[in-house]
Design brief:
Layout: H1 9-14, H2 16-25, H3 27-47, H4 55-70, E1 78-79, H5 96-106, E2 114-115, E3 120-121, H6 126-136, E4 140-144, H7 147-158, E5 163-167, E6 173-174, E7 178-179, H8 180-186, E8 190-194, H9 202-208, E9 213-219, H10 235-244, E10 249-254, H11 272-277, E11 282-286, E12 297-301, H12 303-310, H13 314-318, H14 322-334, H15 341-344, H16 346-351, H17 355-373, E13 377-389, E14 392-407, H18 411-426, E15 432-433, E16 435-437, E17 440-444, H19 451-464
Parallel strand pairs: 1-15, 5-8, 5-9, 9-10, 10-11
Antiparallel strand pairs: 2-3, 4-12, 6-7, 11-12, 13-14, 14-17, 16-17
Length: 466
Amino acid sequence: MNANLIPSIDFMLSLEDGKGLAFNYGRKSVVKTLRRTTAEFRKKIVSGEIRSVTAELILKKCEEALEESSQPSLKKVINLTGTVLHTNLGRALLPSKTIEEVADKYANPVTLEYDISKGKRGDRDDHIVGLIKELTNAEDATIVNNNAAAVFLTLNSLAQKREVIVSRSELVEIGGSFRIPDIMRKAGCRLVEVGTTNRTHLEDFEDAITEKTAMVMRVHWSNFKITGFTASVDQETLADLCKKRKIPFIEDLGSGTLLEMEKFGLPREPTIQSSLIKGTDLVLFSCDKLLGGPQAGIIAGNKELIKRIKRNPLRRCLRVGKLTLCALDSVLRMYLKEETLTTELTTMRLLTKSVDFIKAQTESNCFLVQNALEPEFRVEMVNMKGQVGSGSLPEDKLPSFGYKISSNSKKSKRSSQITKLERSFRKLSIPIIGRIKEDSLFLDLRCLMDEEEFAKSFIELKSTGL
């Protein structure tokens, strides 16, 4: 077949299938996709890969491409990794009550920057600041789009062209190559490192403070631990030093929690309130980690310092929108009634889920999983160790339960078979995300919330084949 004899775009659009595509996907999108599809077939004909092509085949390929491109890139998944606050999977899940409130506010005009009592322009932070002050005892607060923004804005507002003292043990790098030294440089500050990797003393800070010092900054070890021959300066002592020398003492708390986690049977994590009580002038923390809210960063503490930060023009670049404010307002109001947090707040419900409950879920769904995977694979119910995630409580594991799936193939093929199975899970209508370890696929059921969806996924897997 001559490549020039491929059916024309106009001809294919005149066919019933072509008209149907134009109706379903829009004429403009169909024309662009048909041009791409015919170009691909033309290359194959010229190269001799195929002899001919029909209008029906081109339209079919075009429909497949249009269907794929019409699907949203952001997909719902079932998180069976064992990591509750999984950064790659969106961190904290919002409560259903919050989602309902957000949907209502997002579909209607709201008082985002309007003071309804005074009938004039207001500050969007005002919707949240009162709650933050009540829950943390901070004098004031401001909200930005994440904790990295909170760190950057604080440094740029309070320490531009001046020095910031940080212990060498706290010069952290977190996910996405966020490094404290790099952020300081971009914020226009000069980093002054004190102490050593494992030991920092009070005199190290005392000797480093000069007339050029803008602040002392403490960075919480949110995603690692240093153990062994170590020394550090406690928070109260460092706060007292900064007050005597009349410089701000700032803490980047990272995860940030309002709860004494040990009350809920979880490992201890420093709270925002305790940091302020110990004399910290400003505390910076995330909202989508242990707090269980939307992505945002909060700067809370000294009123005069907050005023200086709010005057920075960059704050407008980093502010949050009405969706985030509404979600954060809803989540923070849940903290006013701590007794119901483990049922209302999704993050706390998942973190406090009992091993017995997870085990019961695993046992009740085991036949379904085995039926979909055996005999090619072996399914075992096993104890597991999950984690909080997103840098929170990095050394502490969450006891859990789930499935260990191993290949029954020859040893040389086991790894490739497990990789193929993991890929099949990711291709499901609602992808299942697990973790591969030692040539086995582990599905930790701590974060399983909808067992009906889980069952449908394995029925789909069996019907489509492995």
